[in-house]
């Protein structure tokens, strides 16, 4: 059995994938600050005989983040391997 998954953030008609650098990460977090967006995860479960593909959509609302909070997150966590530049299970999920 092989299970694969990937996630994107969908906000105001745009896909927010993984940021290429700090400036892109900062831009994404500023765009999401104080707003609602969707997190979409696609999943594929495959065996030699069968394949199941589906997606799950979650609505997420961020509180307004100030510049210091965004900078703290970027310096202390690893946003570069995460769609939308954040992991909700990390610090930003508790304050954002």
Structural commentary:
The chain has 96 residues and is of the alpha+beta class. It has helices at residues 22-32, 67-76, 91-95; strands at residues 2-11, 14-16, 36-46, 51-61. A 4-stranded antiparallel sheet has the order 2-1-3-4, covered by helices on one side.
Distance between the termini: 36 Å
Q: Find the count of extended strands (DSSP E, 2+ residues).
A: 4
- Point out poorly predicted stretches: none
Q: What about the largest sheet? A: 4 strands, antiparallel
Q: How are helices and strands ordered from N to C?
A: EEHEEHH
Number of helices: 3
Question: Quaternary arrangement of the chains shown?
Answer: single chain
Report the CATH C-level class.
Alpha Beta
Shape: elongated
Keywords:
alpha+beta; 4-stranded antiparallel sheet; Maf protein; 27% helix; 96 residues
Question: Can you lay out the helices and strands and say which pair or pack?
Answer:
Elements: E1 2-11, E2 14-16, H1 22-32, E3 36-46, E4 51-61, H2 67-76, H3 91-95
Antiparallel strand pairs: 1-2, 1-3, 3-4
Task: Give a concise summary.
The chain has helices spanning 22-32, 67-76, 91-95; strands at residues 2-11, 14-16, 36-46, 51-61.
């Amino acid at each position: 059995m092989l299970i694969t998954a990937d996630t994107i953030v969908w906000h105001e008609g745009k896909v927010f994938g993984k940021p290429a650098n700090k400036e892109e990460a900062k831009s994404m977090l500023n765009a999401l600050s104080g707003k609602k967006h969707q997190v979409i995860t696609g999943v594929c479960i495959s065996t030699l005989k069968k394949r199941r593909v589906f997606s799950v959509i979650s609505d997420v609302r961020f509180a307004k983040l100030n510049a210091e909070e965004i900078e703290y997150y970027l310096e202390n966590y690893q946003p570069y391997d995460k769609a939308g530049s954040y992991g909700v299970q990390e610090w930003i999920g508790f304050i954002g």
